[in-house]
Every structure is written in structure tokens, then in C-alpha cells.
């Protein structure tokens, strides 16, 4: 534990020196929510949404964007860079095992994503009057499973790509479909039924629905939580099976 703590502190210092990464994880989702909230029609109740506003739907979406940024865009190049430069291989000969470094990176990105999610919810409430999650335990359950899926997906991308360049390319290819499934361009709740039925089988489409249901005050549908958990298990299995230290 003392070794892990030392590694975590060192990685935290390095993490804080990367303002670009911090911006995309911690700041960008809130900026995007603010831009969307400044659109007058998004702040008006919509009869087609049961009297809800579009901005109400975008709070869970931007919470998920923070998770996607941390798990898919930022984490994989860091892990791949450590491997490509031989850092993981050299660490295997010291008391600081590579697993400690990987665990520290996952903890840091997980914490940054959750902090960003909290900021999104706070800005949504304070600036645009979006109600706080009505079912907090359900919201946290969906949020934690979504974060696990995002980090597992990023780890799987790292596992199947040999270089930093390849990791960045594959991560970008994966990133845009995940943004669509999350509901960035069209909220999942407003998609046509056939499209929504497909999207809900993706990890972030299911997470978007689960977060929205919890925000409305109910426990998320177990089917949605099950989809997120199943994806997390599959992606973790892929990451463990194919990850190489060098």
C-alpha cells in the first residue's frame, strides 16, 4: 500500500501538469452544457418530452461525456506511452510493479471523471434550474457502472494496439460512435424507437437511459444496468487477456 500511495502521488503530480487532458475531462463537459443551456428553446418545457426541457436531458449526457473523455481519449495514450517507452518493463524489475502504475492511472482518471460529473450536475442545477437526481443511489450506481465501462473500454483499446499512434487512432474511431450512443447529437430519449432500441444495447446508450431514469426519481431499469455491467465484464476480459507490459 505504501508503494501504491507513492506511485499515486507521483502520477497525480504528472497528471496535474497536463492541462490539455484536464480541460477535456474536467472542463469541456460543463462548457458544452453551458452552451446548450444558452439556447432559449432548450430551456423551454417541451410537451413532446412530457413537459421536460431539452437541457434536462443533456445533464446526464454531459456526465457521460466526462467518463468517455477520461476512459477513451485520455487514459489509453498515457498507458500506451508508458508501455512503448519501456517504463512498464523496467518497473517490473523494481518493487514498484507495473500493476501499481496502472492502478494509479485508473484511480486518477476515475476521480477526475467523477469530479467533472459533479460539476456538470452542480452547474445544471445552479445555472439552469435542472433538478438534482431524484434517486441518488440509482444515479450513483449507473454513474459508477458507466465509469467502469469507460475505463474498461479505454484499457481494451490500449491492450489491442501496439503503439501510441495506433492507440490514438483507434481511440478516436471508437470515441465518435460512443458520443452518438450517449446522445450528444440526439438525446437517446428523443430517438425514434427502432434507433433507441439499438442504442440501448450499447454501454453508454444504456447508461444515458439509466441516469435519466434515476434523475427522474426512479431506480434505473435493471436491463439497462445489466447491459452496462455486461459490457464492463467483456471489456475487462479483453483488456486482461491481451494487455502486454512491453
TrEMBL record:
Membrane topology: Multi-pass membrane protein
Residue ranges of domain ABC transmembrane type-2 in the record: 20-246
Location (main, coarse): membrane
Pfam families attached to this UniProt entry: ABC2_membrane
PROSITE patterns xrefs: ABC_TM2
Membrane spanning residue stretches: 20-39, 59-79, 100-127, 139-160, 167-188, 222-243
Keywords on record: Antibiotic resistance, Cell membrane, Membrane, Transmembrane, Transmembrane helix, Transport
Localisation: Cell membrane; Membrane
InterPro entries: ABC-2_transporter, ABC2_TM, ABC2_TM_bact-type, ABC_2_transport
Tree of life domain: Bacteria
PANTHER family documented for this protein: DOXORUBICIN RESISTANCE ABC TRANSPORTER PERMEASE PROTEIN DRRC-RELATED (PTHR43027), TRANSPORT PERMEASE PROTEIN (PTHR43027:SF2)
Family, similarity comment: Belongs to the ABC-2 integral membrane protein family.
Name under which the protein is recorded: Transport permease protein
Amino acid at each position: 500500500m505504501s508503494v501504491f500511495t507513492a506511485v499515486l502521488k507521483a502520477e497525480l503530480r504528472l497528471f496535474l501538469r497536463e492541462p490539455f487532458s484536464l480541460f477535456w475531462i474536467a472542463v469541456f463537459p460543463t462548457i458544452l452544457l453551458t452552451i446548450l443551456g444558452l439556447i432559449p428553446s432548450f430551456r423551454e418545457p417541451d410537451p413532446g418530452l412530457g413537459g421536460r426541457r431539452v437541457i434536462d436531458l443533456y445533464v446526464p449526457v454531459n456526465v457521460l461525456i466526462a467518463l468517455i473523455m477520461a476512459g477513451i481519449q485520455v487514459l489509453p495514450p498515457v498507458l500506451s506511452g508508458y508501455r512503448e517507452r519501456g517504463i512498464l518493463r523496467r518497473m517490473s524489475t523494481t518493487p514498484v510493479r507495473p500493476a501499481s502504475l496502472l492502478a494509479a492511472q485508473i484511480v486518477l482518471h476515475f476521480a477526475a471523471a467523477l469530479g467533472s460529473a459533479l460539476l456538470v450536475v452542480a452547474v445544471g442545477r445552479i445555472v439552469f434550474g435542472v433538478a438534482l437526481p431524484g434517486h441518488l443511489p440509482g444515479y450513483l450506481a449507473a454513474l459508477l457502472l458507466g465509469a467502469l465501462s469507460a475505463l474498461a473500454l479505454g484499457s481494451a483499446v490500449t491492450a489491442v494496439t501496439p503503439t501510441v499512434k495506433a492507440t490514438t487512432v483507434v481511440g478516436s474511431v471508437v470515441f465518435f460512435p460512443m458520443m452518438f450512443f450517449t446522445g450528444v447529437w440526439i438525446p437517446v430519449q428523443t430517438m425514434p424507437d427502432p434507433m433507441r432500441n439499438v442504442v440501448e444495447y450499447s454501454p453508454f446508450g444504456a447508461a444515458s437511459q439509466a441516469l435519466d431514469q434515476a434523475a427522474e426519481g426512479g431506480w434505473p431499469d435493471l436491463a439497462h444496468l445489466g447491459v452496462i455491467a455486461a459490457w464492463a465484464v467483456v471489456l475487462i476480459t479483453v483488456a486482461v487477456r491481451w494487455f502486454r507490459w512491453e
